[in-house]
Design brief:
Number of domains: 2
GO cellular component, one term: spindle
Mean pLDDT: 77
Shape: globular
Helix content: 40-55%
Radius of gyration: 26 Å
Protein name: Ankyrin repeat and fibronectin type III domain containing 1a
InterPro entries: ANKFN1
Structural class: alpha+beta
Largest sheet: 7 strands, mixed
Organism: Hucho hucho
Oligomer: single chain
Length: 346
Amino acid sequence: MERLLQQVRATHTHYSCGDTSKLQNPSRKQSVSRSLKHLFNSSNKFVKTLKRGVYLAAVFYHKDSLLVTTEDQIPIVEVDDCYGSSLMQDFLWFTKLSCMWEDVRWLRQSMSVSMSSSSTLQARQKMLAAAGQLQSLLGTHNLGRVHYEPIKDRHGNVLLVTIRDMESQYSFFSGKWMQVSKLQSQRKSLSTPEEPYALDILLITIQDISAYQRRSQHRLTSGLYLGYLKLSSSVDQIRVLVPQRIPNMLCHARVRDNANVSREEWDWLQRLSNIEDGEKERMEGEREGVDQTTDSNTPLLYYELQTALKALLKLINLPLHQVHKHTLTHVRLHTQTQTQTHTPIF
């Protein structure tokens, strides 16, 4: 995927090279000049209150502080004053921009060339325009990661949120850093606790959102893992079950440190996956005997998978004796080069 993005960027470098130079860190003199310019010109372009529509907010945080405007507001720009039934599909498309913020200008130009009366294209063009405006006002391409779900309220507002964890309290524009608790305490809300505005919901849940972002950056150490994929689908989206402590991963359990699967182990998994239903029942009936008597033809991976599978079932809170009453009839084993589906044996 990264190589594909690099090829696309290389092909269209001439679209973004000029824009990139504008957003690079300038000298001290240029920085002061730009700060003065933003002080008088850009602050009034940020949205202060939400009126029915779609908005884009940028949450830049460092430890327990947020980057806010000179008026102590989270940087927010308007996307559109209305939205249709395809909002969720457009939002899921928008989340992909997290991997290519520097190409927003080129995407806007490309979509302008192919612009049609399609409401979907028009909505996405407005999202790109809002992202470009926010980049220009903040003075940086990188807006961070798009939060996995938009914030909606009962007043007809939808707030799209980008999150970026800063290494230091550096301000790209004429904003300032403020502690989250102070920002929350001095916020004067016009809504009621029963029907809060989307901006109030953002401020109330800002710690949870930033914590989710930090947990999403964790990576698994090298090794072999057993994963569990559980889907929940609706008309406009598909959700997957993930652990709370690592929300960027599927539910999983570690099998062993060695990530490689030998040819003998892989052949055994393939034979296991091809067993007919009747043979499966026979093997399950002989399960106790297999547990007590070590089969010389059974690889060590068999017992490692048993241990990992029991840990995985405990993680998803599914009792061992109820496994065959649920949809956990197949477990997908991933390696770096191959994928195979097989029936678990306990």
